[in-house]
């Protein structure tokens, strides 16, 4: 199993970067078999794969909510991450709405998923999370990847699989919400990555919350 995951990782990275569509054509089971993305990530990165589930409820969720409440930007912990950053001065500065939707797009219950996929296929070619419900209750959660909606059991599971998809398919975080994924990468999953001033600030703020 590990040898197969390592083979896929090597194939994806050799001879230049491949598109998600190219990878899926070569390894269709990555999307057609539930759990395959997480399995490949875990085989390559070991116990790192459980970090989000181990630490989110125990440490991060309540602290992010408290920071969001102070900013009067309460939604729910996962959706609040893009909103509690001090983004600094950059040439590209997405709005809070743009950053949030690039990370988790919230749609009402009953949304036509096929139509949603058609509408976002060109505007959002990167992996992201689709949540159905409202800010108080999420009824369904999906990872949107290569024009497909991969349903997950919880919103946290969807974020977990979406994060791992960036690694498995070797694609960059979208710049609209790169800081959010980099926060999860370096602070939550404790993996090497870009730790900007905004991430260091949020890390310190979270540890200061009691």
UniProtKB/TrEMBL annotation:
Record PANTHER family: SI:CH211-196P9.1-RELATED (PTHR31025), SI:DKEY-286J15.1 (PTHR31025:SF9)
Protein name as it appears in the record: Uncharacterized protein
Organism: Triplophysa tibetana
